[in-house]
Design goal:
The protein has 338 residues and is of the alpha+beta class. It has helices at 6-35, 127-130, 284-287, 304-323, 328-331; strands at residues 62-68, 72-77, 81-86, 92-97, 103-105, 111-113, 118-123, 132-138, 144-153, 156-169, 179-184, 190-194, 232-238, 244-245, 264-267, 278-279, 297-298, 301-302. Strands 11, 12, 13, 14 and 15 form a five-stranded antiparallel sheet that branches. Strands 1-2-3-4 form a four-stranded antiparallel sheet, with no helix packed on it. The radius of gyration is 21 Å and the shape is globular.
Length: 338
């Protein structure tokens, strides 16, 4: 017998699709603004100059990159490689290998290649002074994704400097969707994308599955769950000691229900790899009803603080709908399932 009667189940399904649709639409709107002018037109090719950084065979599944002083590029590979590319000479140097998980193993014991591994990297805005870099990776033994900070001194990744900042419990039975894109805003807050960690639905079906044993198929447990970090964009403020605090302006207020993850700024996403900048002034009129002050404008772009208020304006009501739904995963932090 289904644990929900027909009416609450219908409400949950409608609310779930509403959350996912709003989250996806919000990101597409941001992306279209970032592309400039008409979102239906491809950028003029004259705006880009192709520069070949490495020769074929020098990289193995590169995932993300970040720019360092001295025309150097730090990039990470899914299987754990951390490499520095000299932008002047094109030389590629392996500076470290991070132990990561790269496999899925289902209930039948079948092992296959995973999407996860070493998934993201970004240099701290004050890297020239503190030499901090952040990487997001799949723990080699435990079923979780980890955001950690290291010191990169020249070409040496200092192993003893590692500090774990945040952990995201996951499942490794089935594919897919990891995330790992990161960006700092002008206030020093770090935004991290986290995938839904859910199976791609079969053709003609949804990502809703209440059957016991099919939890990896069910998006209600992750992107539709207000107390789960998966299927979200997170916004935290890294502190000097390796911990983090929650900045003002996230989706769920600090004094809100305990069944809401305060790190979340956007809920109901599938797999976002990066966050684009927004042209200055585009959102100013939209923000008048939600922002505490005018957007912080610098370098020709509206700050991600402004983005957070826009997301609040669009998402807060939709997310709170889930709090009214009789869903055990959303009301008791101890019942979160992978």
């Amino acid at each position: 017998m289904n644990r929900f009667n027909a009416t609450p189940r219908l409400i949950r399904i409608m609310a779930f699709f509403f959350l996912v649709a709003i989250g996806s639409a919000t990101y597409l709107i941001i992306s279209s603004f970032a592309n400039g002018d008409d979102p239906g037109l491809a950028p003029d090719p004259n705006r880009f100059t192709k520069v070949v950084l490495t020769e074929p065979g020098k990289l193995d599944e590169p995932m993300e990159m970040t720019f360092l002083p001295g025309n150097r590029i730090l990039l990470v590979e899914r299987k754990g490689g951390v490499k520095i590319v000299d932008g002047n000479s094109g030389a590629v140097k392996l500076v470290a290998t991070i132990p990561v998980n790269t496999k899925y193993k289902n209930k039948q014991g079948v092992v296959r290649e995973a999407e996860e591994g070493l998934m993201g990297v970004i240099a701290h805005p004050q890297y020239a002074q503190n030499h901090w870099i952040y990487m997001y990776y799949a723990d080699p033994t435990d079923t979780k994704h980890v955001l950690a900070r290291w010191e990169l001194m020249g070409d040496e990744l200092v192993a003893t400097s590692k500090k774990v900042v945040l952990e995201v419990p996951t499942q490794r039975e089935e594919c897919c969707h990891t995330g790992g894109g990161m960006v700092f805003d002008k206030q020093g807050n770090l935004l991290l994308t986290v995938g839904n960690n859910t199976v791609n639905p079969r053709s003609g079906t949804s990502n809703l599955d209440d059957r016991p044993g099919f939890e990896p198929n069910d998006d209600q447990r992750a992107p539709g769950n207000t107390n789960d970090l998966r299927g979200k964009i997170l916004r935290i403020h890294p502190e000097n000691d390796g911990s983090y605090s929650i900045p003002a302006g996230n989706l769920f207020p600090k004094g809100g229900p305990p069944s809401t993850a305060k790190q979340v700024i956007c809920i109901g996403v599938k797999w976002v790899l990066m966050l684009p900048p927004i042209p200055a002034g585009v959102l100013k009129d939209m923000m008048n009803s939600t922002k505490p002050k005018d957007p912080v404008i610098s370098d020709g772009h509206t700050s991600l603080e402004t983005i957070s208020h826009m997301l609040n304006f669009i998402m807060r009501t939709a997310a709170m709908v889930s709090l009214l739904i009789p869903r055990s995963l959303s009301t008791n932090p101890a019942t979160i399932q992978a």
